[in-house]
Amino acid sequence: MMSEAIATSAPPKDRFVLGCERFAAIAGFPAEVFLDSLEASSPDFGRYLIEWVFGDVYGRSDLDLKTRELVLIAAGTALGATGLDVIKFHVPTAIRAGATREQIFGVLIHAGIVAGIPAALAAITTAGQVLAKSDLAKSDLAKSDPAKSDLVGGAAA
Q: What's the pTM value of the predicted model, to 2 decimals?
């Protein structure tokens, strides 16, 4: 029966294309930017991540996007120092998905119960830095084009 499961799976190219589309919609920048960062070291890993995480997992209907992003922020916090890149990526995507700063920091505080104070403090510091950069970008854009300022770090995706 294994062959039936394989036969009903989407062809890899379809998963990759769908994953690239979802990545861009969620992250706000093309998947190619992420993939290019792995080109010299592990292009296969980038493709696997796009196919599985964004092609498959993000396509599930059990959680809304905001909840997914908050869960990933909590998981990144629980990983401690190795999860800080997760925090850096998913704080802006959580904001784009409609999460508030209060919700993000609430998740970080709650994750600290299990992850520990040092891990939570590192995550809170990292999230604060990411949000401060977003505020600066939003402020700079507002000065140059006030009509577009709500698009930077906003809830619309």
A: 0.78
